[in-house]
Specification:
Distance between the termini: 59 Å
Radius of gyration: 21 Å
Bound molecules: ligand LCS
Order of helices and strands: HHHEHEHEHEHEEEHHHEHEHEEHEH
CATH topology of the largest domain: Aspartate Aminotransferase, domain 2
Largest sheet: 7 strands, mixed
Length: 394
């Protein structure tokens, strides 16, 4: 407090943690406990009443988890953070907190398959409607925002089309109307994009991905204003209960330290593979925010420090051709998820977005010839050789 703010690479290692509050342990300790003891009955009463600071029960807060929450808040330049058991626990806690029956959510034209599924569930069971929008002009937003629009929900880059949404533009229109803008920042991590600094209100992460970086944790994070985070922690987080385990929070704190190094390498490797894929005769189109010919390249330059580590591309041929390519790969693994050290390839139409009806997938802008590559940390030359030999065989 009152301390000069350091640069990202320093904050990702030090922020949110004071060793002298934890027996001078260099590394944040793992408080693997479900509950905390009270000195006496009255202290328990005061803690439950909020009259005294202190931990109560790990669903309501845990010291290891708190370090993670404070650290991600610093990195996203927000007031407070909250950790969840998965990205979807974070998405659902935020959307349920912001909406009630009769409300409307305006959503980017494309989202992760399970987020699409959640929007459908909210509509069918609770009468919370939604529309998908390109969000590419103030006029369009003005037309699509309804009197009952309770929040705007954005993924950028969008999974799996890699289309972008201009966060500053949406925030300007929404702020005037007092509508909160929620951004799923999973594909970028705060090293590449910080939506709160562009006027957005809430950031969500599937921390399973780049923030963890090692493919061994499922987790979610939410960052926003103190009052909003307090409200979510006391309602949809506490009472629905999708909290992170202290061990997973500890693993995230460990993995996060190398986020800048990893992201630089992911982006470099992806840029190399993009150049290779772009020129390959068996590939129809490549979608990569670092491509000067990408439809949203000007938005990428405005709001993303780097292009990210994900590339989507369509193969000349059919769904079967795309599947054949996957089956010919030797080094690159066939798996969903992203942001790991290992390079992963997946087929969105039959995997991450299989729950989205074909017609909706077309509206989002992809068909079953699309493949998504999460470029890992291996040698890009080895990755390129693997893609090359697989493409030669189809
Ligand atoms: N938001 C985005 C943009 C995602 O890509 C995912 C998962 C989630 C939220 C949900 O996070 P989770 O609950 O899995 O931590 N995306 C995945 C994907 O593209 N492949 O596998 C999972």
């Amino acid at each position: 407090m009152g301390k000069k703010k350091s640069r990202f690479e320093t904050e990702v290692i030090h922020s949110g943690y004071k060793a002298d509050e934890h027996q001078d342990s260099l590394v944040p300790p793992l408080y693997q406990t479900s509950t905390f003891t009270f000195a006496n009955a009255e202290q328990g009463e005061r803690r439950f009443a909020g009259q005294e600071e202190g931990f109560i029960y790990s669903r309501l807060g845990n010291p290891t988890v708190k370090i993670l929450e404070d650290r991600i808040a610093v990195l996203e330049q927000g007031e407070a953070g909250l950790a969840f058991s998965s990205g979807m626990a974070a998405v659902s806690a935020v959307l349920v907190a912001l909406t009630k029956t009769g409300d409307h959510i305006l959503c980017s034209q494309g989202v992760y398959g399970c987020t699409f599924g959640l929007l459908e569930l909210l509509k069918e069971k609770y009468g919370i409607d939604h529309d998908f929008s390109l969000m590419n002009s103030a006029d369009l937003l003005e037309q699509e925002i309804r009197p009952n629009t309770a929040c705007i929900y954005i993924e950028t880059p969008i999974n799996p089309t890699m289309k972008l949404v201009d966060l500053g533009l949406v925030a300007r229109v929404a702020n005037e109307k007092g509508i909160p803008v929620v951004v799923d920042n999973t594909f970028c991590s705060p090293y590449i994009q910080t939506p709160l600094t562009l006027g957005c209100d809430v950031v969500i992460h599937s921390a399973t991905k780049y923030i963890c970086g090692h493919g061994d944790v499922i987790a979610g994070l939410v960052i926003g204003k103190k009052e909003f985070i307090r409200q979510v922690s006391k309602t949809t987080q506490k009472d629905i209960g999708g909290i992170i385990s202290p061990f997973d929070a500890w693993l995230l704190l460990r993995g996060m330290k190398t986020l800048p190094l990893r992201m630089d390498r992911h982006c470099e490797n992806a840029s190399e593979l993009f150049r290779f894929l772009k020129d390959h005769p068996k590939i129809e189109t490549v979608y990569f925010p670092g491509d000067p010919e990408h439809q949203d390249f000007s938005i990428a330059k405005k709001q993303m420090k780097q292009p990210g580590g994900l590339i989507s591309f369509t193969i000349r041929g059919t769904k079967e051709t795309a599947q054949q390519l996957m089956n010919q790969l030797q080094l690159i693994k066939i798996a969903v998820s992203l942001g790991d050290a290992e390079t992963l390839i997946q087929h969105p139409a039959t995997m991450t977005h299989a729950v989205v009806p074909e017609e909706e997938r077309r509206k989002m802008g992809f068909d079953d010839t699309l493949l998504r590559l999460s470029v890992g940390l291996e040698s890009w030359e080895d990755l390129q050789e693997d893609l090359e030999q697989a493409l030669d065989k189809i």
